[in-house]
Amino acid sequence: MQPTTGSIVSTFPRIKSPKRLSFALLFFLFIPASIFGATVPVRIKIGTASITASTLSLWIAQEQGIFNKHGIEAQTILIRGGPTMLASLVAGDAHVAFTTGIPFLGAAAQGTELKMLSAISDKETWKLMAVPQIKKAADLRGKRIGVQTIIGSTWMNSMLALEQLGLEPKRDNISFLPTGDPVTMARSLEAGRIDAAVLDPVLSRQLSGKGFSLLLDLLKANVAFPGLGVGVTRSYLDQHAQTVEQIVTALTESLAFVLTPANKPVVLKSIMKNLRLNDAAAAEDGYQDQLLTLKRKPYPSLEGLRNAQRLLALQNPKIGTVKLDDLVDARFVRKLDESGFIDRLYGSPPGR
Fold first, then answer.
1. Using CA atoms, how far apart are residues 125 and 82, in angstroms rounded to an integer?
2. Which domains does the chain have, with CATH numbers?
3. 193-241 per-position pLDDT tens digit
């Protein structure tokens, strides 16, 4: 009998014996996925200026194959300094930024259309460390604080720390000296080229062990600050919304991996490898500090961005006119949240 229009005719022979059935199953198992139209991963360059424990979810997404699971072949590019990373993003040398969004504020004030789509935290764990001779806040008067760049994240952390200590750079003759990334800042502090620096928990612990002074813990001071998250240009988002959604989804899943206690050995190994640490205790401190601040649901941090905007406006009043609601776009995190995807990652009721 001839098949009717629209019916499906099998081109494979009927399998009558268990042996043939096993062979057929193996045939389908090892056949290249591309034959069945599997999606080829999208190649994406992700720029980041951070080499700290805060970058954990990005490292884990790469190392544990989470990007690949969500159809992304990611290449992480270290770009020194927020302004340079922003320029790379606008030029298309990097497709996505893993950033606090602080560099976006200045660019937005100049008319560049950018979007912050997520933030893994809205609190800061960094600590103001000083040379052993400096024991109290007043000793910072007339001293040099190391930063990565002027008006970058490390400068803002320093400004927030000084505010908490009742100090004002101009009044108290405190200067900022660009020295490089946080690792270089720590080395400059040890070498005596600077007198103080706000550093991540891992570097802070190492310096504490060498007799350097802890003047302020920003986490204990409960200072709001935007954590790292996904940032893109408006044009890239408009043209590649599905790809951007896949990236946000992968990093949200990676965040859950970091926060899952059973994965602690893997996470610690990643910290030690990426920060080139031999001190397991320092890695443990970095891990514990991350657990204190990471959010299960990485909505963009409006409160943190407001704090950053306030400080940046001191240098550039035009930044104070930026509408933060236009800068953030929570649609992908909201979709993951409302669909129950995030709750399923943790197998528990909604978290922070």
1. 19
2. 42-123+225-346 (3.40.190.10), 127-217 (3.40.190.10)
3. 999 999 988 889 889 999 999 999 999 999 888 889 999 999 999 999 9
The C-alpha torsion from 305 through 308 and 309 to 310, rounded to 10°, is 130
- C-alpha to C-alpha distance for 232 and 339, rounded to whole angstroms: 24
- Extract long-range pairs of 265-270: CB within 8 Å, 24+ residues apart: 266/60, 266/64, 267/56, 267/60, 270/56, 270/59, 270/60, 270/63
227 dihedral zone (left: phi>0; alpha: psi -120 to 50; beta): beta
Cα–Cα distance measured from residue 328 to residue 132, given in angstroms and rounded to the nearest whole number: 41
As a residue count, the chain comes to 352
Give the predicted TM-score (pTM) of the model. 0.76
CB 218 within 8 A of CB 160: yes
- Per-residue exposure over 213-247, b if at least 16 CB sit within 10 Å of its own CB, e if not: bebbbbbeeebbbbbbbbbbbeebbeebeebbbbb
Among residues 33, 82, 41, the alpha carbon closest in space to that of 62 is found at 41
Concatenate the DSSP letters of all residues of 49-102 into one string.
---SGGGHHHHHHHHTTHHHHTTEEEEEEE-SSHHHHHHHHHHTSSSEEEE-SH
